[in-house]
TrEMBL record, chains A, B:
Keywords: DNA-binding, Transcription, Transcription regulation. Residues 42-61 bind DNA. Residues 20-79 form the HTH tetR-type domain. This is Transcriptional regulator, TetR family. It comes from Micromonospora matsumotoense. Coiled coil: none annotated. Transmembrane segments: none annotated. The keyword Transmembrane does not apply.
Length: 193, 193
DNA sequence: GGAATATACGGAACGATGTTCCGTTTGCCA
DNA sequence: TGGCAAACGGAACATCGTTCCGTATATTCC
């Protein structure tokens, strides 16, 4: 986690100093651009913010998904790690599930275009899709299992599908639309009656 | 509804024959293009299919939303009109609601990109948004009211928000994602327990 | 310290797409 | 039939993602 000059197995020769510097600059620039214009911010804008050419972006982050993942990696990880904690501190598994999904919704709601990108079937976003799924599905499945075992929800619920649905509900904004409430309805629909 | 040469109040002079012909051709071409490539089909493709220049498209349908509305107008109307029928023939209001929403989902699911466009907050799609809302919200509200009155669902449900959520759930496709099931969960969440 | 070399950089260039604009064509009416 | 307003076509412009290659520079080796 802390190491930075080791690749997978075969030793990666270590990148040039300017390359590492640019990568960090680019990450900061992208974060700023995403905040200002959403995750669809034009490549040229990000490059300009970082003071580099567009080629440099593509060299470091071949697809937009790679850049998005790099920018939000820590927040996704934090979200995933919150699941067991919530399960331990909440009254019931269903309460923990609800709280955790709220966390996820809060995360998505503050990133314009992220939910849309997440649910795009474009091949370019497959990496993004995969990253989120790899990290968040196990966390969600854990909560789902606990709630199912406690007899609170129907046992056949698929974590991947649920997260995808939540992502969809968070995509798009409208005057009288509250994604949180709709997600709440969805989670309520999970409950056994 | 059947008249075609009257504007609002001041008499519209009636369009030229070639203009009327092109409009019909364009509608057919757009329908075909939407079917083949989704509602985001390139303007040039539609123009080519119709054998007209791109300028002609913009003259008849200033925004893509106008074109989409024109293409799907009849289906939307049919969907709206199905609501009272379903209410009369279904066992319970909630059953009618479920059936009607299934209808809506089926409609959306067969139009690639429509749900996405519907929930886009882009100003260009405001017309589309408005059209769907104007026609479908009353139909849905009717069913919602009936179900609420029968004590089947929570009475504070907003039709516009619900439809928007259903649209969102239908946007985006993934290997293990079934929009119908998720919509079912959402509607189940409406029920009083 | 001073080349040699691989690495990284910058930005021009290309293709796709939406949108506008204006010279040309054509239906319509007198 | 002549004239004009309506409509047309498609070139032209703007934006954006993506690629590519000549140039610059960090690193290494002597």
């Amino acid at each position: 986690m802390a190491g930075s000059d080791r690749g997978s197995g075969t030793s990666t020769p270590r990148k040039r100093a300017d390359a590492r510097r640019n990568e960090a600059t680019l990450l900061a620039a992208a974060a700023a651009a995403f905040l200002a214009a959403g995750v669809d911010a034009p490549v040229r804008d990000i490059a300009a913010r970082a003071g580099v050419g567009v080629g440099t972006i593509y060299r470091h982050f071949p697809t937009r998904a790679d850049l998005i993942v790099a920018v939000y990696r820590h927040q996704v990880q934090a979200c995933a790690e919150a699941a067991p904690t919530l399960l331990a501190t909440s009254g019931t598994p269903h309460a923990a599930l609800t709280a955790w999904i709220d966390l996820f919704v809060d995360f998505l709601a503050t990133k314009h275009g992220l939910a849309e990108a997440l649910n795009s079937d474009s091949a370019a976003f497959e990496t993004l899709h995969g990253y989120f799924l790899d990290h968040l599905v196990p966390a969600c499945a854990h909560l789902l299992d606990a709630a199912a075992e406690a007899g609170e929800i129907r046992p056949d619920t698929n974590a991947e599908e649920l997260l995808f649905a939540v992502g969809n509900l968070c995509a798009g904004r409208a005057p009288h639309y509250d994604a949180r409430r709709m997600v709440g309805l969805l989670v309520a629909g999970l409950r056994l009656r």
